[in-house]
Design goal:
By secondary structure, the chain is an alpha+beta fold. It has 10 helices and 15 strands. It has 2 domains: 2-155, Beta-Lactamase, CATH 3.30.450; 224-286 and 323-406, Heat Shock Protein 90 (2-Layer Sandwich), CATH 3.30.565. The strands form 4 sheets. It has a 6-stranded antiparallel beta sheet, with helices on both faces.
Length: 406
């Protein structure tokens, strides 16, 4: 009885110690020491998932390492540790004096989504019900401690994102505020009302920043079932295009072929579409391209003879009309895409474009595509960027429920 109480004391005290650890490997090492005392075997290990169908050594006893236990456990239906990890249930196997194998008793206890605790013995019936129960108790404490560390890590990331967001907004607000303030001073001194136009533009900029800020701040990262309803994608696209087109001063043409009905939050879907449309029009504008005949340089100024015969100054060509940006919307098997015929997005920038404050356009808030990402994540949709058929940018939104018309 005293011995049993000692093992229980080890399990209880260790469960408290686990929550004082600050790193996953420290949790694993603390749990390993307790597990060796609880299961009474030197062959004990903690394996943690790497997220790609494998369990790597987190903390192993020396004896287990000597037996080759430091190898990665791969996904396999024959692997007892993997069975425990995949099913979420403890696995206990006895060989009953099978002379063909070294380990006569094996125990594997899952650590939730984090990994598995394993123990082995060369003795038959080494793990009785009480031992298995204490191992399960310890594993539950390990799982909770690792869950807590993961939650803390996510909170740190969220706080860092909020800090970066606030810093970007504060920085972006300084410029238009300074412009507006300077404009007021000039107007008062000179009485020239033309400077009021600069003030008006600065106020428009501030309003845009604040509106984007409110969208990001008000809309939470998740949606409730009550927020979702069946939405006609064609109607949503048409309305979003009308709004987006009215907020940019760039000529654009919309080509829409989306007749499906999807399950979404109507207001959040509208935000996603409007911001993607604005991004396609503003960043896909061919105004940034060198149009044929804009300025042609004749002759070669490299020699004196040429310089005397040919005028080397650039000769402006007759003004040409800048082609409008074409934005297309089409259906995918489980979603839809929005693409343009503009300049496209370099491969190395396709992750960064969704980060807070990222913008390649003068005066851009860097919030538009972050709002798109936030809306997609709230719906559990997948968002990816690739090339359009014309070499422009193509945004694909997939993983949408009821994405095909019935």
């Amino acid at each position: 009885m005293e011995y049993s109480q000692t093992r229980q004391t080890v399990a209880v005290e260790t469960s408290r110690d686990l929550f004082t650890q600050t790193q996953p490997d420290a949790v694993a090492k603390t749990a390993l020491g307790a597990a060796e005392r609880i299961v009474e075997t030197p062959l004990v290990g903690i394996y943690l998932t790497d997220g790609v169908d494998a369990l790597g050594p987190g903390a192993l006893s020396e004896s287990l390492v000597d037996m080759g236990g430091d190898e990665v456990i791969r996904k396999s239906t024959e692997s007892l540790p993997w069975q425990a990890f995949e099913t979420g249930d403890p696995q206990h196997r006895e060989r009953h004096a099978d002379a063909t194998v070294l380990l006569q008793s094996e125990l594997a206890v899952p650590l939730g989504d984090h990994g598995v605790l394993v123990a082995g013995s060369t003795e038959v019936d080494a793990f009785d019900d009480q031992t298995v129960g204490l191992a399960v108790f310890l594993a539950g404490a390990v799982e909770s401690a690792l869950d807590l560390l993961e939650e803390k890590r996510q909170l740190r990331e969220q706080h860092a994102q909020v800090d970066a967001f606030i810093e970007n907004i504060s920085h972006d607000l300084r410029s238009p505020l300074a412009v507006a303030k300077a404009g007021v001073v000039v107007t008062r001194k000179t009485g020239n009302i033309e400077t009021l136009e600069r003030i008006d533009r600065a106020h428009d900029r501030i309003q845009t920043l604040l509106e984007d800020l409110l969208v990001v701040a008000r809309e939470g990262p998740t949606l409730e079932p009550a927020d979702l309803e069946v939405v006609d994608l064609a109607d949503a696209v048409t309305e979003a295009w009308r709004v987006a087109e009215a907020t940019v001063d760039i000529e654009a043409v919309g080509e829409f072929d989306a007749k499906t009905r999807i399950v979404a939050s109507p207001s959040r879907l509208q935000q996603l579409l409007e911001n993607l449309f604005r991004n396609c029009v503003e960043h896909g504008s061919t105004r940034n391209r060198a149009q044929p005949g804009e300025a042609v340089e004749h002759g070669s100024p490299n020699t004196e003879a040429d310089a005397g015969e040919v005028d080397s100054d650039p000769v402006p060509a007759p003004p040409t009309h800048t082609p409008p940006v074409t934005v297309r919307v089409g259906e995918l098997t489980d979603g839809f895409y929005i693409e343009d015929d503009g300049l496209g997005i370099p491969t190395e920038s396709r992750q960064a474009i969704f980060e807070t404050g990222y913008s390649t356009r003068d005066g851009g808030t860097g919030l538009g595509l972050q709002i798109v990402r936030t809306v997609a994540d709230a719906h559990d949709w997948e968002l990816s960027v690739t090339d359009s058929v014309d070499g422009g940018a193509r945004f694909e939104i997939t993983g949408i429920k009821n994405a095909r018309a019935e």
